[in-house]
Design a protein that fits this description.
single chain, 716 residues, alpha+beta, five-stranded antiparallel beta sheet, four-stranded mixed beta sheet
Amino acid sequence: MIHFVLQVLVNALAVAITLALLPGIHVSPVGDEPIAVTYLSLGITLGFAYAILRPLAILFTARLVVWSLGLFLFVINAFLFWLMGVIAPAAGSYDSPEWLWLILGSVTTLTLINVGEAVLAINSPIFEGNLRSKWYWRWLNRLPIGRRNWIIENLRFYFILRILASYSQEIMIGFTPLARFRLFMQRTIYGIPDLPGEKSLPAKVRVLLQDLGPTFVKFGQVVSSRADDLPPEWRTELAKLQSNVPPFPYDEARRIIMHDLKKPPEELYASIEQKPFAAASTAQVHRATLFDGTVVVVKVQRPDIDVTMKGDLNVMRDVVDVLQKRQESIRELDVKGMLDEFANNVLLELNYLNEMYNARQLAYNMREFQGIHVPAVYPELCCARVLTQEFVKGVKITAVDKLDAAGVDRKVVAREFLRAMLKQVLFDGFFHADPHPGNVLVDLETSQVIFLDMGLMGNMTQDQRLALADIIWSLHERDGQGLAESVVTLSTPYKEVNQRAFEQDIERMMKRYLMFDDAQMNLSGPIGDLTDAMQRAGLRLDPSLTLALKALFQAEEIVSTLDPQLPLIVVAFEELKALFRDQINATNVTQAVRTQATRAAKQIVRRLPSLASATGKWLEQYERGRLGVSLDISDLSPQIDRLDQTVTRNVTLLALSLLLAGLLVGSAIATNLQSEWGGIKLSNVAFFLFLGGAVIATVFGLRIVWSVWNSWSARK
């Protein structure tokens, strides 16, 4: 009740001050009522409009609000201000132009109301971090609306605005002398148990993300993964997003298990603990026992988070689309591409069948590492929202006190973990994309490193892996030009690039690191400078490579915590060479050759009919004496037109090489001919042509090798 009374008084006072400040708005009391009664009636009417009509207006016009970047809210507020004068028992008038006074009146009134609410803590946020789903999300998701559920998206947009407004008041008033009075109101008037005003700014932001929902918690986790760029207090608070999340009731978890696995938990497991021993932004984990006595964990997704997360992501996309159309800097940063990558990864993580396959693949790839363990999964007890896997014991890999107390050699753990991450990224091309300390444990008994949460995995092609290895190699050798060349091959330009200027920028950057010895050289420093240089040059890394670098940065932070004296670049370089030696052995090479030979054989078999037909036509023309070789380069003409005269020689060599290849193939086929011409066997002529073509090809090859050698020597 006290909230309602204070809200009415704040509204009435805001209206009174607005009417006093703006001479273009006139209100007359009805009958003999005092002017104070008129202001109170206007305050009640305005409170009703803001509490009921404003949310409805935003709900139905959210797209316009996004398109106008929030400016349409002024139109909504002006309409409500006009409606207040119409509904309230008072005669009001506006000087010409009326629309100007309506806008000024609404802006002034809303500003005063926000100030009053902030000081009196009327809309004070309750720091519960409650991620429990509301019943109506499931019902709204069933509406047959189409590909995008506009009702859910608009409703989420309204909730986001409301939560941001509440926390913004809390954060902004904390920087003013009125903060103590607001704290008194929270404690004395409202009896709020966990006083928001006593929390630090990082704590307020952390709980704001939790109240906004799982999508924003995931976003905060992404930010916290780059914790080396944040102050210590922010690092501590954002790290709580990894695990410090309230659970949801077991009844909801049981309902999801029954719905997806078609049986109640009591029939699927010998026992299951109703109280979860861990909760995250998207799921919570219950300990259970299988009928054979195996202890497992059951990961159950939060109810209906797929509905709200899809709505949040679509709202974000709409906002970014508008910003990208109007701001060139947003386009250059490719914010839309980064958001799409984030959205795709988030939605992929929501399907636990993907995590099940990822865990099995990662366990297979890590089988040669005795110090690495990936928990086993049980496919028969897994589905899109439920995952059952082996229970493992361990502590966070960065819990150095516990590792030391248990006698675990941190240096060995650091090297094994780094070696495993390098193999995943550079050799397998399938890597854990979020190896933060909450997802990497250490078994205190076996000293094994345990990977958890394989919902987000990265994938890279062979060319990308080799180029990334070349980057590490160049950093170790302080080779600026090699580093620049590797980056260019991995990047996509979003504006005209001056490659020479970019190379000079990288050379200058590497000169700074020549002063560092190997023990001081890390990975994040030069890569961060490299990213800045790429942005200046107009280059953008592929999303999969960005994910790989993020994973390596997280791995570097863990390794630095375990062994601060470990020279990361040197160790990475040594492990890279060791992994190359391990991978390039007779078995692997033979397997690779066999695979490539099989692929080539398949291509030949598929093309045998067309090759036979082409050979027959070639022989017919040869016997008729009308043999000709035609080379269709019509598709190359646009590129040839743009070539400078300096490459004319290379084009000529390319054409001669193609003709020479045709001569070699044709003469090789013609050596099987049995016919004669003028007493001379055509097979003999074809043999000498083949021999001559082979000699010419050898000369060409030697010239190319010599040219490449001279170019390399000049660069050195």
